[in-house]
Amino acid sequence: MIQPFTADPIRFVAEDGQPVLPLPERYTPALLRELHHLMLQGREFDRKLITLLRQGRTSFYSQASGMEATQIGLAKAIRARHDWVWGYYRDQVLGLGLGVPMFTLISQCLGSNTDECRGRQMPHHFSARDYNFVSASSSIASQVPPAAGSAMAQKYLGTDEITVVTFGDGATSEGDWHAGMNMAGAMGAPCLFVCENNQWAISTHIRHQTASENIHVKARAYGMPGFYVDGNDVVAVMEVCHHAAEWVRAGNGPALVECLTYRVGSHSNADADAEKSYRTRDEVNEWLGRDPIQRVENLLEHLGDPISAEERAGMIAAIHKQIDEDVLRAEAAGYPDWRIMFEDVYSDLPDHLRQQEAMLREEQGGQA
Question: Model-level pTM?
Answer without folding.
Answer: 0.94
